[in-house]
From TrEMBL, chain A:
Species of origin: Neoroseomonas eburnea
Domain MacB-like periplasmic core, first and last residues per copy: 16-231
CC per GO annotation: plasma membrane
Domain annotation ABC3 transporter permease C-terminal: ranges: 262-371
Protein name, UniProt field: ABC transporter permease
Residues annotated as transmembrane: 12-36, 260-282, 303-327, 347-367
Topology of this chain in the membrane: Multi-pass membrane protein
Main location group: membrane
Subcellular localization(s) per the UniProt record: Cell membrane
Keywords tagged on the record: Cell membrane, Membrane, Transmembrane, Transmembrane helix, Transport
TrEMBL record, chain B:
GO molecular-function terms, A-Z: ATP binding; ATP hydrolysis activity; transmembrane transporter activity
Source domain of life: Bacteria
Record's GO cellular component terms: membrane protein complex; plasma membrane
Protein's name in the database: ABC transporter ATP-binding protein
Entries under PROSITE patterns matching the protein: ABC_TRANSPORTER_1, ABC_TRANSPORTER_2
Family, per entry: Belongs to the ABC transporter superfamily. Macrolide exporter (TC 3.A.1.122) family.
Pfam assignment, any one: ABC_tran
Keyword Ligase recorded: no
Sequence intervals crossing the membrane: none
InterPro entries: AAA+_ATPase, ABC_transporter-like_ATP-bd, ABC_transporter-like_CS, ABC_transpr_LolD-like, MacB-like_ATP-bd, P-loop_NTPase
Keyword annotations: ATP-binding, Cell inner membrane, Cell membrane, Membrane, Nucleotide-binding, Transport
């Protein structure tokens, strides 16, 4: 017979209540791990899905996500002619507020030339941008149905396709429009003074300004070597996809990542304290029973087993509740909650460890209980 | 094992609770023996030290002075004490507590079987013997009940079954019949006599119950922690 199990069955209601409470707490901790992973995953999803091997930006900047970068539009042709480059596409990137059917919508607007690199690699529904102007491909996170009309910079855009998982580091969904539309938009949304200067043609490149060139390399080309070549132009900088990914996860989302990481640690610490207290209370509630076990000669191993097994049962039941809660609610979060088997297994290990450590104080107390404490009324 | 040597041998035993001003002398210079097959009664007014004496013999309490030997093994002797008192308790001693002390989360039959599994008996075999004991004590039909649902007398008999489960050579009972009517009290005492005979056990029973005094081979009376009369 298993004493730990028998005792829990004896006060099942209370145990289940405890598990639900603990489950909620662990669910919060588990969600935090998922949110943390989500921030990293989202940052990487962006570069992955653009299938860029090389990012060419303004010299001295690490754009276009980490820093602002402005280069003339003709850079695209220069890059396209660099040996090893298969295709090059110009892109613009800016945050804009647009009027959507459901209200104001903040999004990261990306302009690119259909047929050239810079657009979404995969379309989830509808189609990619065609030749027509004022078309838009929006990420599912923007919650824009196909055919929806969106007002942006005074123009009306029609949503012709959707993507999935493309969000900027701040969590804003990405929407794609034609480069031409985006350059006009750039002009319309610029402050009046800058607009006058641009119209007068005083600024270099006039309206044909882009933020970056995205290049796809031939399979044989070495990204670092091509980047070196590009850097020889003094007004340009180049980032390989690996560098861009590193930049996105380290620099752009670093604050958010560290913040979430810290909070996860705090939550795990709080969980550890609460689990320890619960195990201690559970053990002290059985003071008389443990004393009785000692009276009838139960060895220490029986008593340690009782406390430890109950701690593990509590951990397992609480964590099971937590997993159920998290997987039922993850869809409600506005940003990705990235939880795979690895994260779930890692948290199981952490919670198992917490349960074992949390039992130590209780085991010590249980071993100190004197058998006489069971005597008397 | 030497058959004629007393199973329980207590010499010059003393016990003082607390120290200094607050010291309470509970036992002083108690010497007694219980031989195999003997059923001995222990009586005395409340607070005379009966439970204290029983608890020391049961290796639950540490004496302040004197010696204790159980079945030829020295348990206490001045500075010396057996390292693992709990092993001694589970292997040699059956204790029927003044308050039954059943585990509330185990059924009656499992409370009895647990004592046997602690000594390595297979669970199935332990349960079978536990049932047989409960039947014998006329609580067999309550075998699957939880202790909270048992009457005082039923719980006491389950506790008796637990104390007998491992066929201990030394059985100590603190008022085992207090919760029983005189009919059942006699049944329990007859059972203990039977066990003393069959297992050649030494049995020491604390009791106030004059109706069962005739069931003992002899009585020991305590008063203020000292042996008043041995008969
Ligand atoms: N843990 C303890 N601490 C201090 N004093 C104690 C302790 N246990 C018992 N005593 C004292 O020792 C004396 C003997 O107590 P004991 O319980 O042995 O009496 P008893 O003969 O069993 O009484 P009863 O018939 O009421 O059960 C009493 O004066 C009691 O107050
Ligand atoms: Mg007493």
């Amino acid at each position: 017979m298993n004493l730990a199990f028998a005792d829990i069955r004896h006060r099942l209601g209370r145990f289940l209540m405890t598990c639900v409470g603990l489950g909620l707490l662990m669910a919060v901790a588990l969600s935090m791990v998922g949110i943390y992973q989500g921030v990293v995953a989202e940052a990487l999803a962006l570069t992955r899905s653009l299938r860029a091997d090389l990012w060419v930006v303004e010299s001295g900047t690490r754009g276009p996500f980490a820093e602002a970068s402005r280069i003339p539009g003709d850079v695209r042709e220069m890059i396209a002619r660099v040996p090893g480059v298969d295709a090059a596409g110009a892109i613009t990137l800016r945050t804009a507020e647009m009027r959507a059917p459901q209200g104001l919508l903040r999004a990261q607007v990306m302009g690119y030339e259909p047929g050239r690199p810079g657009g979404p690699a995969a379309i989830e529904s509808g189609r990619g941008l065609g030749g027509a102007r004022f078309e838009m491909v929006a990420d599912a996170r923007a919650r824009l149905p196909l055919g929806a009309m969106v007002t942006l910079g005074g123009d009306r855009y029609r949503v012709v396709g959707t993507t999935r998982g493309l969000v900027a580091s701040g969590g804003d969904p990405l929407v794609f429009i034609q480069l031409r539309d985006s350059q006009e938009l750039q002009f319309k949304l610029a402050p009046p003074a800058a607009r006058r200067a641009l119209a007068a043609g005083s600024s270099a490149g006039g309206t044909d300004t882009i933020n970056a060139v995205v290049a796809q390399l031939s399979p044989a080309a070495d990204p670092d070597a091509v980047a070196e070549t590009v850097r020889r132009w003094k007004h340009l900088a180049a980032l390989t996809d690996a560098e861009q990914g590193e930049l996105l996860t380290r620099s752009v989302v670093n604050r958010a990542r560290v913040q979430l990481g810290m909070f996860t640690v705090v939550l795990l610490f709080v969980s550890a304290v609460i689990i320890t207290l619960i195990i201690y209370t559970m053990t002290m509630d059985k003071l008389r029973e443990i004393a009785t076990l000692k009276l009838i000669g139960a060895p220490d191993r029986t008593i340690v087993g009782l406390v430890l097994q109950q701690a593990m049962l509590l951990g397992v039941a609480g964590y099971a509740a937590a997993i159920a809660i998290v997987f039922m609610t993850r869809g409600l979060f506005p940003r990705t909650v990235a939880l795979g088997p690895a994260e779930v297994a890692m948290m199981a290990g952490v919670i198992g460890g917490i349960c074992i450590l949390g039992s130590l104080a209780s085991i010590r107390a249980a071993l100190r209980i004197e058998p006489q404490q069971a005597l008397g009324g | 094992m030497e058959t004629d040597a007393p199973l329980v041998r207590v010499e010059g035993l003393g016990k003082t609770f607390g120290t200094g001003e607050a010291a309470v002398p509970a036992l002083a210079d108690v010497t007694l023996q219980v031989a195999a097959g003997e059923v001995v009664g222990l009586r005395g007014p409340s607070g005379s030290g009966k439970s204290t004496l029983l608890n020391i013999i049961a290796c639950i309490l540490e004496p302040s002075a004197g010696r204790l030997r159980l079945g030829g093994e020295t348990v206490w002797d001045g500075a010396y004490r057996v390292a693992d008192l709990r092993r001694l308790r589970r292997e040699r001693i059956g204790f029927i507590f003044q308050f039954h002390n059943l585990l509330p989360f185990l059924t009656a039959v499992d409370n009895v079987a647990l004592a046997m599994t602690l000594l390595g008996t297979e669970l199935a075999a332990a349960r079978a013997r536990a049932r047989a004991l409960l039947d014998y004590l006329q609580v067999g039909r309550r075998a699957e009940a939880m202790p909270a649902r048992l009457s005082g007398g039923e719980a006491q008999r389950v506790a008796i079954a637990r104390a007998l489960a491992n066929r201990p050579r030394v059985i100590l009972a603190d008022e085992p019949t207090a919760a029983l009517d005189s009919e059942r009290a006699r049944v329990v005492m007859d059972l203990l006599r039977q066990v003393a005979q069959d297992q050649q056990a030494a049995i020491l029973v604390v009791t106030h119950d004059e109706k069962i005094f005739d069931r003992f081979d002899r009585m020991i009376a305590l008063r203020d922690g000292r042996i008043e009369a041995a008969g």
